[in-house]
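Deviation from plan, reported transparently: alpha-L-arabinofuranose complex.
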Amino acid sequence: MIRKTRYIIFIFLALIAIIVILCFVRLSPNKDPNEVQYVIGMSQANLTEPWRISMNQDIVNEAKKHKNINVVYRDAGGDTEKQKKDIDELLASGVDLLIVSMNDSEKLTPEVSKAYKSIPVIVLDRAVQGYDYSLYIGPDNESIGRQVGKYIADLIGNGKGKILEVQGLLNSHPVVERSKGLRDVISNYSNIEISRTIIGEWQRDESEDKVKEILQQDKDINIIFAHNDYMAYGAYKAVHDLGLNNIKIIGIDGLVGENGGLDLVSKGMMQGTFTCPTGGKEAIDYALDILNKKTDIPKKIILRSDKITASNVNGYLNNKLKKTEEHKKIVLGYAQLKSESKWREVNAKSIKDAAEKAGVDLVFLEEGSTQEDEKRMIRELIKRKVDVISFSPYVKSGWDDVLKEAKAANIPVIISDRNVDSDDSLWINNIGSDFYEEGRRAARLLVDLFKDKKKVNILELKGNEGAAPTIDRTDGFVEIIKDYNNYNIIDSYYGNFEYNDGKNIVKNYIKKNPNKVNVIYAQNDDMALGAIDAIKELGLIPGKDIIVVGTDGTKEALVAIKNGEMYGTVECNPLLGVQLIRTAIQVVDGYEVPLRIVNSEDIFTKGVTNKQIFEREY
Ligand code: AHR
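Because the crystal trials were delayed, the predicted structure below was used instead.
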């Protein structure tokens, strides 16, 4: 009996032990690397447009590669109110990150802001207003419209062009932007007119019916441009039914699969299409980076659009279907400007650190600071046959020759930091800041400060002549202050982004024009700090007698703000290394890379804390 009881107690204790062990195993996190760690909510505007189906599919395909994420999908069916509810439900269910592609970006902006207060949000395709999101990924619709316009002009040549434009939904963002781009170009050609514009609601049948009706009335139409390939396909059916084989049809999207844009071009049913990548793959890649708390996440990613015609469709399709899983060891050649500022020092370090971490061989040349010096360095990199070239262009214009040489040598070029005005067929990607927006932000800081003052005299310290940040920051700044009668840029000087230049300009100017300047707007913090020292040396008090606003957001500038000597600074993020190296590797591995990657940036003014200064990386 005692033996039996002991036996029962033993079994009972063993069972308890097993249960405890099982519970422990279940509760301890990350035991299984394949276990779902993150749930991502994906709120889609509708799933009636093939492009949106393709976006979801891109997300599915990319998410499949990562066992630790689960994506929960919601389809709003084209109903904005339903999409609001979808987002609320996803939030209530506790998703870790939201991806949203909006039906109506204006009406959904507050919903997205609300979500962003609690979790990271990636906005796809249509941008929200303001900055309440983690990352925006989408196409440049205006540029797509311009590319379409140029293509039509090439097709028409000296003949007469009569275009039927088939738009998606009336006044929707992509429609407005694409139409603007198209019209900007077409308005330069007196032999081409947009004779009719109709609404195809992004749908094939709607387009087919309306196009048929119009073609029966107007026999001179010789180009149909549809804002997506699905409507272009409808237009093709109408054209085909009426036996009008002289009409050329152009679309947008370039999807793969039967009757996708690429298929229609390769079958000769469409003259050409312009790709509009969905961003689904990138959304998952960056969602993981955000969830894994990686640093240097950009704020905006603009995707590249390629022109696809009969001449390149097969090559494009082959590339698209090619699966590259192997990673080649790469050599990146970088031509850097001589360090004119703190920004550049940090920028160079960020590139070197990221290359080392990723195991990329970096040939880093820093031999001069003129455009000719840079061209010499780039030619040297071409000679050395590096896999990818990157450089920070001293000025915006005049790069075509050397970019063409790199292209001829089959070396892709990533434009880093500043941008160029060369055609984007000559470079593969541009990583950097939105300098125009930085100028606007600096002006907004000031207009808030001097609301009631009758006259505000601004002395502007520009960077080097012809540089993208110089041109764009001035333009952005002026765009904002021109609406305020009391603001006046009394003088502008090139301070070349250097401390000494900033200091000398300000000292001489104030000596010659005492009591004239109220504000100094410096296009970088080095010049702003130079200006502050000049003001002090002249016996004046910076922050009281003269207000100084800088650009870059360096640690030294933050200290000056804390001390009350600088009013504020607009961040220009130099930490481009991680994104640059990632892009260079992707290019060599054969992936499509975004056209433009824009940094995430902040504004610093009163209220800067010691903690912020202490934690500042540069
Ligand atoms: O191109 C970035 C600009 O160049 C920075 O704002 C400035 O400090 C730098 O030298």
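Residues 340-341, 343-344, 417-418, 469, 497, 524, 551-552, 572 surround alpha-L-arabinofuranose (CB under 6 Å). We consider this an acceptable substitute for the interim report.
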